[in-house]
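Batch manifest line 434
LIGAND: L-homoserine
JOB: complex structure
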Amino acid sequence: MSEPLGIALIGCGTVGTGVARLLLEQAERLAARAGRPLVLRHIIVRNPHKERPLPWPQERYTSDLSVALKDPEVQLAVEVVGGVEWAREADLKVLAAGKDLVTANKALLALHGAEVFDAARKHHRSVAFEASVAGGVPIIAALTQSLAANQIRSIQGILNGTCNFILTSMYEQGVSYAAALAEAQRLGYAEADPTLDVDGTDAAHKLAILAQIAFGFTVPVESIERRGIAQIEDVDIKYARELGYQIKLLAESWLHDNQVAMHVSPVLLRLLAPLALVRGAYNAVHVVGDAVGDTLYYGKGAGQMPTASSVVADIIDMAVGRAQRTFNTLRLWSNNGAHFQLRPPGTVRSRFYLRVLVEDQPGVLADVAQVLARHHISIASVIQHEVPDEHEGERVQMVILTHTALTGQFRAAASEINQLRCVMAPSVFYPVAD
Ligand code: HSE
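JOB STATUS: finished
ARTIFACT:
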């Protein structure tokens, strides 16, 4: 067997603990896969005195990264800390010290991918990042290797396990949003700051990474339109179900006329669509390539051991030498997709779900329909339930599904509808996928 690969683990939270467990408890199996022993030499943590459930002597935990960086027997650092700034500095030091890097830090890559990858190239080092998107689902390997013959046409993903867990619990068990979020946190799916999950930021970070690989397209994360799930109401989940749909938080990107459209949004999916069947904290990514057609990737997108599975796969790829070859060939974050532009969101065509709380008076349906007609938006179906006699003439929910329309025109129509005298609360709308 060849020389051992010496590893420094930076961060020992949920994911780091899983990585250490695999390295320490499955050493023989991993050495056989890598063709050489994978030796964990340092664990760097913020608080070295905290007790951890690992077969690792307490006195060997350290908060001093420099010892690992100076250790000539460390060839690889694995960074699995949350947050961006500290991780960015640590990763740049790792590369400058001549070590390869495995990271699970999607926020870091989405925000500073170019800087980290440039530093790696400058120091003739490599970066692998399978665990940064969709936890245990091997979507990075699929896009960088298995689908290499294709021009990717579209990516549609459930990329945040916390949001999918919350939406599934609300849809299937009628659990409140707050209770479902607390349970997702207890199970270790959510980020340290769960706002990043529920407002769509985490999914936008992951989408930025996938678009980088699929289209060579570097997009500032702030330019990705995003809406999260915190504002989704039970009433919309019920109406969607009645219409034959379920609401999922999707991260979507597709190529059209040299323009890349991207957004993160709650979307109505038909009940039997493959992504609608993805439940709980599972993730799934639907990728369409020009040669292969439709492909689907599915698995646990969050949690300790699924994410550790991807991190350790990267470590094995580094030990074998595959990751270095992929890194050098792909030239990610080097502006190789500069000929593509971000498509203005208003020009994207979609169907829409629209719910408006209106006065229960003559002519109200006609008023709303007229605004839609003026904006060239055709109605596909309408729901308005009879209200009990004692409330007749008060208020009623009107739900409309449209045919395909330009997003810009639909939004203009929705703001005009909000101005109608009969409308009692701002309208709620979501795209509908077909
Ligand atoms: N908070 C993330 C999620 C974890 O819920 O999907 C994996 O990135």
